[in-house]
Each structure stands twice: as structure tokens, then as C-alpha cells.
Amino acid sequence: MSRVLVTGAEGLLGSRITTLFRNGGRTVVGLGSRELDITDATALDDAIAPRDVVINCAAYTAVDAAETDRDRAFAVNASGAGLVARFCAAKRARLVHLSTGYVFDGTSPTPYETSSSPRPINVYGESKLEGERAVRDELPDALVVRTMWLHAGPTTAFPAALLRRCSQGNPVSVVTDQVSSPTSVDDLVDALVALIAHPDPPLLTHATSTGTATKYDFARLIATTAGLDTAQLRPCLTTDVHTAADRPRTVVLSDSSWTARGLKPLPHWRDAYRRAT
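RESULT FIELD:
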């Protein structure tokens, strides 16, 4: 593998990729948004070298804020992603672009395939879908990977927020009608390594931990693993929680495009979370 450049390296996924790749002895450069603005063509020209492997984790991920900050969300998630792909194409660098199941509307009774028609229901999802298209237009052989509900154990993302709220001793409402696959960042990084090394990788794929859960199911495991009383958790519906952006209810991503190429499914989400604690 050539030098690996990770954009968005200050985020959950980007930081773990940088750390784990470096610990594995690979040559890796991780650049956060303050070091590399992917909407800046000059900066990208300087950052991307010929024959690099570029893993684009840079993204505007504030789902609710995007509803009123549409221009910035599209600048980063769509225009910026396309610009990364353009410079990768110009320098013959390989590109792995991270996307999300939020490109779907969450109404499918069966897991979404890579062939399923996207239909985002919020600005964040719209901007990420536009980014996928921009990447494909600029670099047809880029690898686009959709994932969902990333975490790295109890100190990050949803688990950390939940445990912080539980520690205050008050009831915590958690929705029971949002369903997906809580996905271990470390397992996803291992999957990306396998994808990059594959001689004939799928150009568009889904990579999530195996199994599905409601947010409430996930919250119960988080609380139980931490030794907390799950009686604090109060089940509710998405309509009971007032947020600026609507959330897709059921986003289960099929891994058929992944396993069809002989790639190993990611471990089950419950096992992955317990391993991360």
C-alpha cells in the first residue's frame, strides 16, 4: 500500500484510521479540517501526492444544523468530495470515500442494496448523496462506502452522550422506532484495509456491523455494560423528540455487495460493543 492520506482526521472515523494504520506500520498522514479544507483546491493540490491512497472522511456531520446551514453542508459533503476526487484522478491516487445510509428514506421493509434508489429526507442526506455522485463523476473507479451509527465504545458518539445523561440520574428518553446497525469504528477500519487490498473491490458497497438494533436496544446494551440501571431509559417514538432534521426510521444496509466479492462480514454489533469497553 502507498502512503495513506486521511482527510477529516480529527473526527471519530478519521482519527481511528490514522491511529490504527500508523500502529500497523503503514505510512499515513492524517489531516483535520483545520489543516486541510477539502473545499480549497490549492490545499488539495499540495496535500495529495501521486499514487496516494486517499480515505476521505472529511464531512459536515451536524445533521440538525445542516437544515439551516445548507450551503456549508453541500460545500463540504458535495463540492468538497468532488474536488478530492478530481485531484485523486489528476494524480492517479486511489480514493475511498465514506458515505452514509442517510441517503435513503428509511421506509424499506428489507435491507437496502447498493442498487436501491436513494431518497434522502434531510439536508445532510441530500448533501452526502450529491457527494457520492460528484465523486463518481470525477473518478469513476473511486470506492464509495456507506456505513451507519459509528462508535468506538463507551467514550465516543451516542454511547458517551447516553452515559453522560444517565450519570445525571434523570430519566433518558430513547427512540424505539429508529433501526440500523451500530457499527464499530475499529471493525470498519479493518474492513477498509481489506477493501483496499482486494484485487477487484466493489465500487459501491455497504459496510456495517452485523445485526440490527433500535436506538433503544443499543442504549440498553450501553447501560447494562456500564452497570447502570436500565430503568432510567424511557422508550419513546421519533415523533416525541423534536429535532430540526427528520431521521430515516429503518436504515439497514445489505452487505451483499461486500460478501459477493469474498469480503468477510463485520462482527455482530453486540460483540463489537462489548469488545470496545
